[in-house]
Backbone:
């Protein structure tokens, strides 16, 4: 059910020819209220696609009536023509829904530089057909329409004493088109203000999507949007809602990691006993972005030397000669020297757990990543050719 | 001739069984004077191998009598036993040469964690045999003894009105053992003080080796050592010497790039019209470290969208919507939008040139890198297995 699991939302997914495969490529999610509160987070890349530039303005007042999403073209670096396409998308949706264009959020994903007249015509067609097909059970179709190289749709639902959080996501960490764009729409029928949604969303994304670092490449189109209808009539305590939202975000993030098609391992890098949470994140991220480490995991090689060399490039507070490193529960390095033999480690399962004990404090963080594989290289060298 | 091209230097390369192939694995370079001035730069990784920890102390007084280098083991994260191995290496060489151990520089390369009793015994054997075989024509043998997965020895010589700079290097940017360790020894018979050498070396490495960023991974063992014998009796002006030294460093850096065995393209990323040199370096490095860009080059795909997305993550001063990008002389992106068709670009040659025009100033920098290939993944996943 994804985004239509909570009360007060309609959705749809239609095929208008943006994808050469003929699969669904435009999704619409509409908030029927009574509340129309919304919050969103956007890529921090300075190179932002036109839908990002538009949606940042549209969300500013904390109100959103609907989200229109397309796959099959990023509409990024397509100049003023591309921005007009996004504008027209919002105008057309607003007109058909009888609302203001400034309350329509737009998201796009696909190849950078794609956004010509044909693209525009098809997206506008998609808006009309998508709105015509809106349904309170349309969440699954919407989640399919935002897929690109995703092998499966990503959906999550969390229900909590009368109110529900539902979400859909697209992205395949390592090989999604163009730049592994991540698009997420999350809905809830809890009755919360825009500012509460914003607080909850920033916390939830910080510890979920922001810690998924499949290949270190940041997209021009990443966007996570949260809509609240208030249809349950219930106003949960913010920490309770935030926890539910976080669990949906973590569920979706793990689905994104697990669908990194080029990958053969889903790696969780858990950093413990750090002096601060930011130190733990910095250390985990340094490992997640180290190609030599990632290639070693592909080769089922518990190469702790590459872990130590990767974290040695950080500014986090720890003694590199007093660190322990475990691979799948086997401590192969203790106090910066060899411990149990590498042969004791079994790296054949897809799920891989690296534990890094910094012995410098009490904070912790887990970064999710994937290995560096032949398929990653293949898919990303062949994509736009 | 490499390091024995300048007057006043003897060198050797011997095989003592550190390499399972039976090839040369210990090199010795001795400065016969009359001057024994020296300078060195070291990895900035906080995880430093024992030879780095030793050599940083040994070089501090600006005097070095000799450099002992081994391949076949990094002697990193081998604890106090490993440090004692380095210490004993210096002691043995000093004893045989009749000098102080504190004037012996030691370098190692190979797998992290390698440095047991057998390793120590072989290295000490190599010191004895290497010193016994020292010769004023031993530079070539020395350059072979430091090779690891290098497919060829790297040497460069620059002669200038009576004085000479000679160098040797090991490293194969993308797939060298462990962590692409770069070891370089440069000699000169120019008569310069340690502080002049230090100034010249820091400038030369800043614009050469520091701009070679094959896979973003920093080794625990990187070291560049410069020895001056003064045997020519000539004291060149420092800028003249620095220029000669820089040309030797650039020559060696390009040889390292060209021998990245896993690579199919040598990529020069030239950033022009930057607001500062550091901005130019930051922008070039962001592209050099972007796996999606690197995989696209492997696929002969002039994917300028990935270039713009990569540089959008930097803090350099420029307008991402006003940047030009050329691939091998063909401008495919102008002012943040499409320009000439991608079909006009020929990316089949190994030598690849990316030009990024930031239109924000007058500074420039060129970063050297390689593409991300199947062979890179293969060699780095199979290395220690």
Residues:
């Amino acid at each position: 059910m994804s985004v239509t699991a909570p009360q007060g939302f309609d959705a749809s997914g239609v095929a208008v020819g943006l994808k050469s495969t003929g699969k669904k490529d435009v999704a619409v999610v509409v908030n029927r209220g009574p509340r129309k509160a919304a919050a969103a987070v956007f890529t921090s890349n300075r190179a932002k696609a036109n839908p990002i530039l538009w949606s940042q303005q549209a969300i500013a007042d904390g109100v959103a009536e609907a989200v229109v999403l397309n796959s099959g073209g990023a509409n990024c670096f397509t100049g003023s023509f591309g921005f007009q396409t996004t504008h027209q998308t919002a105008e057309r949706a607003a007109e058909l829904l009888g609302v203001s264009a400034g309350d329509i959020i737009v998201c796009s994903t696909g190849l950078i530089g794609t956004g010509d007249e044909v693209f525009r015509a098809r997206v506008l067609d998609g808006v009309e057909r998508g709105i015509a097909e809106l349904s309170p059970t349309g969440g699954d179709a919407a989640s399919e329409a935002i897929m690109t190289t995703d092998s499966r749709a990503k959906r999550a639902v969390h229900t909590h004493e009368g109110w529900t959080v539902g979400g859909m996501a697209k992205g395949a960490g390592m090989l999604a088109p163009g730049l592994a764009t991540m698009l997420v729409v999350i809905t809830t029928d809890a009755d919360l203000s825009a500012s509460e949604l914003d607080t909850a969303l920033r916390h939830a994304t910080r510890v979920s999507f922001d810690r998924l670092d499949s290949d270190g490449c940041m997209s021009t189109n990443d966007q996570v949007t949260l809509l609240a209808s208030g249809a349950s009539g219930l106003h949960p305590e913010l920490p309770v809602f935030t926890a539910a939202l976080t669990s949906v975000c973590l569920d979706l993030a793990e689905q994104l990691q697990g669908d990194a098609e080029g990958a053969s391992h889903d790696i969780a890098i858990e950093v413990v006993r750090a002096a601060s949470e930011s130190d733990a994140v910095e250390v985990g991220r340094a490992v997640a972005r180290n190609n030599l480490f990632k290639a070693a995991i592909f080769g089922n090689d518990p190469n702790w030397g590459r872990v130590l060399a990767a974290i040695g490039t950080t500014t986090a507070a720890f003694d590199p000669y007093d660190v322990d490193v475990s691979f799948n529960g086997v401590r192969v390095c203790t106090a910066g020297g060899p411990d149990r033999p590498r042969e004791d480690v079994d790296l054949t399962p897809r799920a891989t757990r690296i534990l890094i004990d910094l012995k410098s404090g009490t904070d912790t963080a887990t970064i999710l990543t994937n290995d560096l594989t032949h398929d990653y290289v293949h898919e990303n060298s062949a994509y736009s050719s």
Chain A touches chain B through 61 residues (CB under 8 Å). The longest strand of chain A covers residues 266-274.
